[in-house]
Amino acid sequence: MCGILAVLGVADVSLAKRARIIELSRRLRHRGPDWSGLHCHQDCYLAHQRLAIVDPTSGDQPLYNEDKSIVVTVNGEIYNHEELKAKLTNHQFQTGSDCEVIAHLYEEYGEEFMDMLDGMFSFVLLDTRDKTFIAARDAIGICPLYMGWGLDVWFSSEMKALSDDCERFITFPPGHLYSSKTGALRRWYNPPWFSESIPSTPYNALLLREMFEKSVIKRLMSDVPFGVLLSGGLDSSLVASVASRHLEETKGASPWGNKLHTFCIGLKGSPDLKAAREVADYLNTVHHEFHFTVQEGIDALEEVIYHIETYDVTTIRASTPMFLMSRKIKSLGVKMVLSGEGSDEIFGGYLYFHKAPNKKEFHEETCRKIKALHLYDCLRANKATSAWGVEARVPFLDKSFINVAMDIDPEWKMIRRDLGRIEKWVIRNAFDDEKRPYLPKHILYRQKEQFSDGVGYSWIDGLKDHASQHVSDSMMMNACFVYPENTPTTKEGYYYRMIFEKVFPKPAARSTVPGGPSVACSTAKAVEWDAAWSKNLDPSGRAALGVHDAAYEDTPGEAPAAIDPVTHNSLRPAIGEGLVKPVA
């Protein structure tokens, strides 16, 4: 991941202003420690902090077209850049950077090229011919971007580079483009699922598998060492399996050999460490296992909140171990990793989806979850890794894969205990290959475990205890007066809010963070699915009472954890029970 900062229409073009922009750009250097660049054109400044993944020797930014009349600063990866270059036969490319193609596409097509890009990105492009500019962000919001206003217009990869100098700033919405010609944002990403209408396409297991394999393979584009973040859960295990199989089949086509490196972190004895080790052994990867203590995680909280720029409870819980792991990964010389974010949103993998009343509400909730990913898991995966100069790529959030997955009749995604379908059954079944297994059965059908839980249940318990020592009952009673916007409802939430406000004190900063009730990572709307949830609002998967195998203590009158409250049978089907095999 790189860091970008652009300031356009600057009233003060003094050397002091240039020095200030360089100073603010340095706040993003953790994202791009390999090189710094700055382009100045009259009253416009485009700065860049580079993390060199593709073409490390000649791909420094900002990037230009042939006569340097078009300038672009980019954070991201364009996976189909070679295909796009082949179409631009009248253009001469100066570097091997995948991002240079953006400058030439704009020269050829104007603003109407966004749908042609296959990748993750945020960028600002300046056309010096008429001094107009555009800014854009990828479809789902994998790469962060903020927009701010002071006496000028600002864009930045992270809030910390513009918050001090802007009176107002917002999270730049994913799938949007801003044009100075119109002075407005418009959505360029308009897939069929965005309307939340209910699809009716039958489930095709082989097509789903094929699309995911293509998504993983295209993300192995790299000129530097890479690996996979492996928690041992379904999503990361599938990513590792596909990547490992591809490296073996291409006989080391990667410059780093045909053995995949995998990484996992957890408290000693945690569920993730055990499961990840088993998957790594099965796939024969070079596995790196890291441990941390609850105290080490607590000690890192202020730094984590500074980097991820949120006070959302579940994001901070999961970001902290990921932040610690990324530091270890970077120390090994690895600069890029693949990760499993997005699957739970697309397939309804969170345990609260067990209570979805019908396929319509199930599908609408998955749409809401995908639309909000840039505020939660995408933000976490990007900023927790970028804090140490590591780039995270997310195969489940490939545009083509999402289109196929979200076009499936949601009846197939529904949790059906009578048919042996647990959460995310459609993707589990797609990779259930008897002849050449991708994963062991019990891993393929392992229950969903949120990252903040899987690293060790005592992690969350330790955070709650620590927050209770710093936030009194009287502080909670006055929370609505101290924090009238997004008022914290727990001592843990209050504690994170105090840290956030200390680092980002402006009202605009707190408005970039979402709020509302949630249980087991649900949206506020899905809390309505079960009346008991409103009394147990916690983002941990263990808050899904009656569903999670290690649920929190049940309140009086509720069925025991992991037992169907109607049939009194276990919610976990026998491995392989009721499965429909892919049809050739």
Automatic annotation (TrEMBL):
Enzyme Commission code(s) on record: 6.3.5.4
Pathway stated in the Swiss-Prot or TrEMBL entry: Amino-acid biosynthesis; L-asparagine biosynthesis
Name one cellular component (GO) term. Answer: cytosol
The entry marks the following residues as binding L-glutamine, namely 98
Which UniProt key words apply to this protein?
Amino-acid biosynthesis, Asparagine biosynthesis, ATP-binding, Glutamine amidotransferase, Ligase, Nucleotide-binding
Q: Domain named Glutamine amidotransferase type-2: which ranges?
A: 2-183
Query: Out of the domains of life, which is the source?
Result: Eukaryota
In terms of SUPFAM superfamilies, this protein maps to: Adenine nucleotide alpha hydrolases-like, N-terminal nucleophile aminohydrolases (Ntn hydrolases)
Work out whether the entry's keyword set contains Coiled coil.
Answer: no
Per its record, the protein catalyses: L-aspartate + L-glutamine + ATP + H2O = L-asparagine + L-glutamate + AMP + diphosphate + H(+)
Give one GO term, molecular function aspect: ATP binding
Pinpoint the site Important for beta-aspartyl-AMP intermediate formation. Answer: 341
Against InterPro entries, the record matches this protein to:
Asn_synth_AEB, Asn_synthase, Asn_Synthetase, AsnB_N, GATase_2_dom, Ntn_hydrolases_N, Rossmann-like_a/b/a_fold
Show the PROSITE patterns listed in the entry: GATASE_TYPE_2
Q: Where, by residue number, does ATP bind?
A: 229, 265, 339-340
Q: Which residues form the active site?
A: 2
Q: Name one GO biological process term.
A: response to stress
Q: What does this protein do?
A: Essential for nitrogen assimilation, distribution and remobilization within the plant via the phloem.
Q: What is this protein called?
A: Asparagine synthetase [glutamine-hydrolyzing]
Native source species: Panicum virgatum (Blackwell switchgrass)
